[in-house]
Amino acid sequence: MAKLVSKITLGIDVAKDQHVVFNWQTQETTTLPNQRNEIKAWLKSFSDPLQIAIEPTSHYHLMVVDEAQAQGHTVYLIDQRQLVHYRQAINVRNKTDPLDAWLLARYLEHEGHLLRPFQPQDPRARRLWALLLRRATVVQSRQQLQQSFREVGWSIKALITQFSQVLLRIDQDVKRLIRELGWWADYQRCCSIPGIGPGNAAALVATYRRGAFSGSDAFVAYMGLDVRIRESGKFKGKRKLTKRGEAELRRLLYCASHAARTNQRFADYYQKQLEKGLTKIAARVALARKLARIAFALMQNKETFIKQKKPYCMAP
8-114: what fold? Predict the structure, then answer.
C-alpha cells in the first residue's frame, strides 16, 4: 500500500537580506539568508514536499520562489490586503516578522483549498511587467517634479527631456518583449479600443496572459475593479472597489476612461452612469471597468473593436 505523503506548510516573511520562516508542523521559526546557494541548500534539506505561503515584497521574494518551484514545491503568493484582513479576523494585534511568517503559514494551512498556486512565468513576461511598473514610477516622478518646480518658476526642460528619453526606451523594450512573447496580435486588439494607448494595451495584455481567467468577471476582479457589496437586512453599506492586485492597472484604466469618452458609445455609457446618480469619479471607474471587459472579450475571441484611421498604438 502506498504511503501517504503530507505536505509541510511554511510561511515566509521576505526581506532584502534575510527571510523569516515558520514551519506549521514543527511550530519552529528560523531565519534564512536571501542568497541563492543558502536557499537552494535549505530547500534540499526537506525530504517531504512543501507548500509555501509568501507575501510578495518588491523583488525580494523572487529568488526563493524560483528555487522552490525548481525543486517541485508549491508556492502561493498571498495578497497583502487579504493578509491584513485575515490578521484582523483572528485578532492578531502585533506585527513583527516572525508573526507575519506564522500568519502566512496559518493562512495557507487553513485556507489553502481556496487558493490558487502560483504559476511560473516566462522570464520575458516577468521583465515586461517590471518595466511597466518602472514606467509608472518614471511618470509619477516627472509629474511631481513639474508640479514642484512650477511654483518656484525654474525651467527644468532639460530634465523633462531626459525623462521623456527614458520613457521612450522603456516603451521600445515593452513592444519588443510583446513581440518576442507572441502577444502582438492581442496588443493590437487592445489598441483598437478608443482611449486605450500603448501603456494601457501593454498592461492589459500582460495581465490577460498572467493567468487562466474563467471570464471577464474574474479578469476585472483580478485587477481590483470589482465592487464589494455590504448589505445586512435593511442596511445598505456603501459600495467600494476591492482594489486587489496592482494599483497601476487601475490607474491606467482610469486614465484611459477620460480619452475613451471621445467615442460616442463610451460617452453615452458615461452619461448613463451619471444619470444613475454616480459621481464623476465613480462613473469613470465604471467606464474603466467596461474597457477592461471589452479588452478581455477581444483577446478571448480574437476580434478587433473597430478600424481606426489613426490607431492609438503604432508599430515600433
Answer: Nucleotidyltransferase; domain 5 (3.30.420)
Antiparallel, parallel or unpaired: β 74-77 and 50-54? parallel
Beta strands in the chain (DSSP E): 8-13, 18-23, 28-33, 50-54, 74-77, 227-228, 231-232, 235-236, 240-241
Sheet holding 8-13, edge to edge: 28-33, 18-23, 8-13, 50-54, 74-77
C-alpha R_g of the chain = 23
**Residue among 229, 209, 207 at smallest CA distance from 292:** 207
Q: Show me where the domains of the chain are located.
A: 8-114, 123-181, 183-316
| Residue 213 near residue 222, CB atoms below 8 Å | yes
Q: pLDDT tens digit string along 87-122?
A: 999 999 889 999 999 999 999 999 999 888 988 778
Return phi, psi of residue 27, to 5°: 60, 30
C-alpha cell at 62: 523572487
**Nine cell digits for residue 184:** 502582438
Q: How far apart are CA 52 and CA 12, in angstroms?
A: 7
Nearest to 211 by CA among 247, 245, 188: 245
Rounded to an integer, what distance in angstroms lies between the CA atom of residue 39 and that of residue 235? 51
Reported as type and span, the H/E element at residue 128 is: helix 123-152
Q: What is the pTM of this model?
A: 0.76
How far apart CA 193 and CA 41 sit, in angstroms, is 50
Q: pLDDT digit string (tens) for 73-89?
A: 999 999 888 898 899 99
Q: Which amino acid is at 162?
A: Q
pLDDT recorded at residue 309: 47
Q: Report the distance separating Cα 247 and Cα 128, nearest Å.
A: 16
